Structure formats: structure tokens, C-alpha cells
Amino acid sequence: MSNGFYAARLNLPFPRKSNGSRSRLIESPELPLNRIHQSDHSEKLKLYRQKWLSARAAYPSKGRTFMRNNFRRLHSWLNRYDKMWLEANLPVSASYKSFPKRIGKAIVDWSACDVQLSNQIPSIIERIKSKPGYPKKISLSEITRELGSNSSLRQRLSKLPLTSTEISRGLESREDFTIRKIRWVFDCYRVQNAIPARWQFIKEARIQSYDLKLAKVQKVLDKAIELLRIQNQTTTALTEVEEYTE
């Protein structure tokens, strides 16, 4: 049967008029569930912003690298959903603070910049040494990480002779770093009044087999273990005397 037959049965006009365009679906009103999701997102946005600002307030002198590495999840979420706000509330780039920018054809005052940076290096080295926990080697990477300008400083060292000299003066050799690790482990055992086996001490200090061949390292290691034994014996003797005199 023809289409006109069915149209007549249903009291529909035939042929049907067309305006030449496709019919449009009627847009449904926004579902309550969508509003709930939007509300949740808004609350989470507000919460994460506040957490980021609190973190910034807790570490006002830290740079972008520190904030990104220590608040990775928070930084990642804001970078994805609130990038413009995050960029506006990041610490000022260390490279921007440390290194002057070229404006037009103006010449950069590298001498002034060199003096400023070279004065910072000694305090940065002391800060690395005094960090709690297992020691970190004083290297160019660690120094530039503290400055927050990993690539910027390395690329410009040729223009910063004073800074380069200060860094070279403070860099730690493999031998010196190993000895500093031995002293750190010694202090830990001394506080505990414990006498570790030689292999235990080496393991705690994370001394490589190559470093154990160095004469100075062997001497310091043997002396540290000997002092721990003397301290333990002295402490034991004092305890026995106190118990006897009571």
C-alpha cells in the first residue's frame, strides 16, 4: 500500500510539507544530576584552591619545583581543571627572579646577577648539609634544585664566574660524601648506644664497594665503629657502678 493510504487512515496531510531542513530534537531541560555534579565540582574547586593557598603560605620561600613535587596530586588536579588560576598563584619563577631578561636590545647586567647569586651559594650548601634524614650529596644538581632553576643556572655558568667558583668550592667529592654518610650513621648509633656489626654499619651508610677501597674511608669507618664500642663499654661500666652503689 502507498504512503497516502496510511496517511488517510491516520487523518494526516499527504504529501507532507517540508521546509527542506532536518527536524531538530527538542532539548531536554538540564537534569538535577548534572546540577549535583556541577555543585560537587565547584566545592572541590574551592577546597583545592584553599589547600594550595595554605601550602603556599606554609612554604613561602619555596619555588615551583618544590611545590609541584611535594603537592603533586593537588598541583595536577588544579593544572587540569583550573590552569589559569594555578598559573596566577604559582611562586614566581626562580629563573625570572635570578636572571635578568633582555628587554629589546638592552645588555643584560650579568656581573650584578653573578654577585647576587654567588652570595647565595654558601647558605644553600649549608642548608643541604643540615637537612634532616639521610645525607644528600652536595652536587651541581642539588644546588640548582635548591635555587629552583635546574636548567637556567647550568646554561649560564659561563657568564657567572663568581657563582661558578663558589659552586666548585662547595661541591662534594665521592670520598667526602661517603665520610659524611659514615658520620651521620655514627651519630644515629651513638644516640641509640648500639654497636652494629661492620656489615650493618656499611649497609646503613649505603657505602659502595668501590668506596670501601679508599684508605681514608676505611680509616674513618674503623674509627667510628671503635668509638661506638668504647661508648657502649663505658655506659655499661657506669650502669654497673650505679647499681653496685645503690
UniProtKB/TrEMBL annotation:
<feature type="domain" description="Transposon Tn7 transposition protein TnsD C-terminal">
    <location>
        <begin position="36"/>
        <end position="164"/>
    </location>
</feature>
<dbReference type="Pfam" id="PF15978">
    <property type="entry name" value="TnsD"/>
</dbReference>
<dbReference type="InterPro" id="IPR032750">
    <property type="entry name" value="TnsD_C"/>
</dbReference>
<protein>
    <recommendedName>
        <fullName>Transposon Tn7 transposition protein TnsD C-terminal domain-containing protein</fullName>
    </recommendedName>
</protein>
